[in-house]
Amino acid sequence: MKTGLQISSFTWPGGTEAIGRTLGRVSRDADEAGFDSIWVMDHFFQIRGVGRPEEPMLEGWTALGFMAAHTTRARLGLMVGGVHYRLPGLWVKAATTLDVLSGGRAWLGIGAAWNEEESRALGFPFPPLGDRFEMLEETLQIVHEMWAGERGSEAAFEGRHYQAGRLLNSPQALSRPHPPIMIGGGGEKKTLRLVAQYADATNVFGGPEMIHHKYEVIREHCAAIGRDPDEIERSTLQSVKLALDGVPGESPQRVIDRFGELSDAGAQH
Q1: Can you spell out the DSSP letters for the chain?
Q2: Which residue from 9, 71, 177, 190 has the least number of CB within 10 angstroms?
């Protein structure tokens, strides 16, 4: 099983002035320790379950560019990007730029998004969920066109939500055939269908039984379109709280055992 690290909080000793050097150190340490991937969230306010909205939160793509300069081997990505925060061409250019400058280590993580609070607060349009799924599918179609060939596509794109006249992408990404695309979310009718049709990886939540079920749903969607489901990396985001310095939590052995159970359920990353 591959192991990634998601950095979900920037509330660190030293305040705002220390965020840069701390993030650099955490990124280097994770890279040198052998993590296969390092991730940040695509949020502008801290999210519920992690902290208060007023706690520090960095813009994701900018943070990943900084982290690329402090690492040499781990892949880097958003887990996962909110489709309505950027237009499709910017999604591709940002991921391509990260891939080129990191030496071919970018992920494109994307999903239909959920955080209405921060969107309304900062003035991002927050279309209804059905529209966001349509936007996600059109974005994925544009992504594949822009990452095709040496410089993308000369074709125009005419969708319900997006129109583009020339899907040029220069420089092209170093990762071939393109940086891996991860779609986050576990909706069985729409999200996992999009995974089967467009993605290289899925990211789902839950315990072993839940994630195994989600992976089986992906297999069913793949069978419907004639795709090999083993082409899709099976990822799951899990929280770990180690027992350290008298603070209660899990022992390292318990974490290993729990990850073994997730692996038995089908998780690969």
Answers
A1: ---EEEE-----TT-HHHHHHHHHHHHHHHHHHT-SEEEE---SSPPTTT--TTS----HHHHHHHHHTT-SSSEEEES-EEGGGS-HHHHHHHHHHHHHHTTS-B-EEEE----HHHHHHHT-----HHHHHHHHHHHHHHHHHHTSTTTEE---EE-SS-EES-EE-SSPPSSSS-SPEEEE---TTTHHHHHHHH-SEEEE-S-HHHHHHHHHHHHHHHHHHT--GGGSEEEE-----B-BTTB--B-HHHHHHHHHHHHHTT---
A2: 177
